[in-house]
From TrEMBL:
Keywords: Oxidoreductase. Belongs to the HIBADH-related family. Residues 158-282 form the NADPH-dependent reductive aminase-like C-terminal domain. It comes from the Bacteria. PANTHER family: CYTOKINE-LIKE NUCLEAR FACTOR N-PAC, OXIDOREDUCTASE GLYR1-RELATED. Residues 4-151 form the 6-phosphogluconate dehydrogenase NADP-binding domain. InterPro entries: 6PGD_dom2 (IPR013328), 6PGDH_NADP-bd (IPR006115), HIBADH-related (IPR015815), HIBADH-related_NP60_sf (IPR051265), NAD(P)-bd_dom_sf (IPR036291), RedAm-like_C (IPR048666). This is NAD(P)-dependent oxidoreductase. SUPFAM superfamilies: NAD(P)-binding Rossmann-fold domains. The keyword Ribosomal protein does not apply. The keyword Oxidoreductase applies.
Length: 283
């Protein structure tokens, strides 16, 4: 089924989103602050709106993918939101999403927030995921259309849930990047080739560790941090040894030190018999 959909914001991501909607056969109206960025999309069948007001009036579903939430609000300020679904895929904080949902509802619109778990070349490809939360009825009405961009997954009625999960996923990613950087710096200090270490040793190891994370989730959810695998006292000694090795190799362990501090804090409370999952209670 073909829907009328407007896309506000034609940066790298907004352009990829609009392209995927056009490729799926939807009637797409686009608006961008710098109008020239619409040209490649016009050649693919998009219509260009001269103003955000015109773009919002053109379609019952309006997708916003702009720099930040203040720019979304400024763009929608004078637009007729009555009867419109605003799907805001701009990255932001949960508090901003909740505030924007109220602001849209106060103008007669429905609001769905979205967290894009993909980079532009991944859009419309297998593996691309967009997390949504907010108005469930609005999401269900347009789930088919939204699936042209990426797998849509609804995560709850709280508009702040999708951005919170988005930021949690990015947190996991940054933690992994921190580990990669420290490991690579240590290996480089010893002259071992990183082009061998990373693909043939580190990545399989991290994949094996990641496979255990659902069990960690059960521990953290239940609060039962008992372990038959590796207790905190052993990890405290292991991480201290690791940090000492970094100094001996002339490498800064700066990204590891905050983890060491939390392990030390937990064991100092007399909880060294617990597993690493117990560290969540210190956070
Ligand atoms: N690119 C990515 O990989 C990430 C993946 C995860 C999600 N993010 C978020 O998507 C939002 C847009 O990101 P983007 O990559 O498209 O960003 P740009 O290419 O820099 O485009 C920015 C667009 O925002 C428009 N814009 C900026 N300020 C204003 C304003 N004050 N009023 C109206 N529009 C504004 C800008 O317009 P112009 O500069 O072309 O005139 C672009 O359309 C973002 O939240 C990411 O975190 C992408």
């Amino acid at each position: 089924m073909s829907d009328n959909i407007s896309v506000l914001g034609l940066g790298l991501m907004g352009t990829a989103l609009a392209e995927s909607l056009l490729a799926a056969g939807h009637q797409v109206t686009v608006w961008n602050r710098t109008p020239a960025k619409a040209e490649p999309l016009l050649a693919k069948g998009a219509k260009q709106a001269a103003t955000p007001e015109e773009a919002v009036a053109a379609s019952p579903l309006v997708i916003a993918c702009l720099l930040d939430y203040p720019s979304v609000k400024a763009t929608l300020e004078g637009a007729p939101l009555e009867g419109r679904v605003i799907a805001n895929l701009t990255t932001g904080r949960p508090s901003e999403a909740r505030e924007t949902a109220e602001w849209v509802a106060g103008r007669g619109g429905e609001y769905v927030d979205g967290g894009i778990m993909a980079v532009p070349p991944m859009i419309a490809q297998p593996g691309a995921l967009i997390l949504y939360s907010g108005s469930r009825t609005a999401f269900e009405r347009y789930e088919g259309a939204l699936s042209a961009m990426a797998e849509p997954r609804f995560t709850g009625d709280d508009p702040g849930m999708a951005p919170l999960l988005d930021l949690a996923m990015l947190t996991g990613m940054y933690g992994q990047i921190a580990g990669l950087l420290e490991a690579a710096a240590l290996v480089r200090s010893a002259g071992y080739p990183l082009t061998d270490f990373v693909p043939s040793l580190l990545v399989p190891w991290l994949n094996a560790m990641a496979a255990q994370q659902p069990q960690w989730a059960e521990k953290m959810a239940s609060g039962d941090h008992s372990t038959q695998v590796s207790n905190l006292e052993i990890n405290r000694a292991g991480v201290a040894n690791l940090v000492q090795t970094f100094y001996e190799q002339g490498v800064k362990p700066d990204l590891l030190l905050p983890l060491k501090a939390v392990i030390d804090q937990r064991t100092a409370r007399g909880l060294g018999h617990e597993g690493l999952s117990g560290l969540i209670e210190e956070l």
